[in-house]
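Journal club prep — side note

Before the paper discussion, L.F. wants everyone to see what a predicted structure for a comparable chain looks like in token form. Sequence:
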Amino acid sequence: MAVTGIVNIKNEKVGEIELNDNLFSVEVKPYIIHDVVRMQLAGRRAGNACTKTRAEVSGSNAKPWRQKGTGRARSGSKRSPVWRGGGTVFGPKPRSYSFKLSKKVRKLGLRMALSSRFSENRLVVLDAFDMDEIKTKNFVNVMGTLKLDNALIVIPENDEKLERSSRNVPGYKVIPTAGVNVYDVLLHKNIILLQSCVDQLEKRLLS
């Protein structure tokens, strides 16, 4: 198992922790990470483009003119797609772009993303991150001490003080262990992992 140091918010080493090789030392295969990210982004697409068919546009059901004898082409409705203001044929309708990957592949993709950050020495294990009050300045000071200008902060569970202190600072995101995903891991240069989150990640990704 790999061993890494544990630091506090003053950037002082306070201990060491062993990291499971099956979680933080996995061989990175870009095509798997690509598939997982593509799945995440596809699920976020709104797909709300919508056009009206001839059954949905407003207009009379009356026949514009009689079938024969006028010298004009026959017509049955002013809502016909060939008329200006008529319905659209085969136009877009609201749809979902999402697709699914197996749970095994999704877990593997996240393990690879975490392994990638660990191999680049961009994973920091923090003993605790307690905020006495909701104050952006205090959060910025801690990040300055840790010398991390862009980071995903993984916490055991929702923490209102920490989340609200960080939300107006660009480049940072606070997320509970249950919400860690490949896209956010790759989007941020560094990962700040609270010590108590390591066991939670092992249970989630190695079970």
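L.F.'s comment for the group: Strands lie at 2-7, 13-19, 123-126, 151-155, 172-176, 190-194. Keep this in mind when we get to the figures.
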